[in-house]
Write a structure and sequence with these properties.
There is one protein chain. Helices cover about 65% and strands about 0% of the residues. It is mainly α. It folds into 2 domains: about 45 residues, no CATH class; about 60 residues, no CATH class. It is elongated.
Length: about 110
């Protein structure tokens, strides 16, 4: 009986150690994004300091929040991609591929 109890105690200790290893491997909020990207094959993640973000230096917090809100929209990100891609020869057909003309105007007005 004593031997069985000792084996159980050793096993519990080993399980505690494994659990602690597992707990340390759970990513924090910041690293959870890195973890998700690593699962998709992206290993190099660089965080840009705030002073390197492409916003005017006198940008208000509300403007920054509005842009942040827009960046959550897939259609806006695709719109930006097309805007950057076709910046030398902008035509409505390039900017309205994934959104309506009204939405494209709205996005442009926000960016201006």
């Amino acid at each position: 009986m004593e031997e069985t109890l000792q084996r159980i105690l050793v096993e519990i200790q080993e399980l505690r150690q494994e659990f602690q290893k597992f707990r340390r491997s759970i990513p924090s909020n910041r690293t959870s994004i890195e973890y998700m990207l690593r699962r998709r094959g992206v290993f190099a993640v660089k965080y840009t300091p705030g002073e390197h973000i492409v916003l005017p230096p006198d940008c208000s917090k509300s403007t920054e929040d509005k842009l942040y809100g827009l960046m959550k929209k897939y259609s806006f990100r695709i719109f930006l991609r097309d805007l950057i891609k076709h910046v030398d020869h902008l035509k409505p057909k390039y900017l309205t591929k994934y959104c309506s003309e009204d939405v494209a105007r709205e996005y442009l007005a926000t960016l201006v």
